[in-house]
Model the fold of this input.
Amino acid sequence: DQWKNSREAGQCFALSWRSELSESGNQLLIEAAKVARLRSVAPFSNFRVGAALQTAAGKVFTGCNVESASYGLTVCAERVAIWKALSEGERDFTDLVVVADTEALTPPCGTCRQIIWEFAKHATIVLANLRGQREEVHILDLLPRAFDARFLKDAARETDRR
Ligand code: THU
Done:
């Protein structure tokens, strides 16, 4: 019985240690996103956003929003981070942090939700601001019933038949 208790205590310690580790890991990722945010190129909106994407192996890719004078060509911080990571051959992502200086935490826009669904659906998403607030969200909640490549398969079968 004593052994069982000590084993439980050990497990309890390991669990809290692990969650503290991921907490501090998150904090590092938040700091990386904050630094990226400072590199934001947002002369039109002055709305600065930073993102940090972590791979399963622990590598971090950051992004900031980059605005175009042709406004619609602007790219969000989240997508910049995802494109950078994908173009370096990374495919497996565990965490994505988005930082903006807003009281209500800034969530990814609709376009980014689609891209997160397609390329980083298993990543835990953390929204954070400069006041130390943070919230974990999940892509399934942000983008329910998403469209993706599964739906294209039917069309491919259709052309095969022709
Ligand atoms: N923006 C992001 O970079 N990420 C978001 O999650 C929301 C919006 C950028 C795009 C644009 O440069 C500026 O914020 C205002 O929309």
About this structure: The radius of gyration is 19 Å. Helices lie at 2-37, 77-87, 110-119, 139-142, 149-161.
